[in-house]
Amino acid sequence: MEQSVERNLSDPKVYTELDLAFHLAVGRATKNELIRKVYEVTLDLFAPSIEETHRRPDNSRNALRHHQNILEGLEARDRDRAEAAVRDSIVQWATLSS
Fold first, then answer.
1. Where in the sequence is the domain holding 44, given as residue range(s)?
2. How far apart are CA 19 and CA 16, in angstroms?
3. Which pLDDT value is given to residue 93?
4. Residues 37-93: pLDDT tens digits?
5. d(CA 48, CA 33)
6. 43 in Cβ contact with 24 (< 8 Å)
7. How many structural domains is the chain composed of?
8. CA dist., res. 26 & res. 49, Å (int)
């Protein structure tokens, strides 16, 4: 998936689809139906704003870095690391979308 992301950094529509797919995969990985649904609804609401932030390739590169950090924390089963990566990602995204 990472190679697909790298190839599509300059296409905001495709990168947004990949971005949303990452978040949906995280939601599904919880194996909690309520959390999965919350992810779906939330992502539907934020999709236009996410796409807008990806109109600048630098923002997409930042998102990729944040997603890698989140994934590394999850794969390591390091709750503190994963939570810190999620918080960092949210703070960064909030500054881009405001």
1. 2-97
2. 5
3. 83
4. 999 999 999 999 999 988 887 888 899 999 999 999 999 999 999 999 999 999 998
5. 24
6. yes
7. 1
8. 20
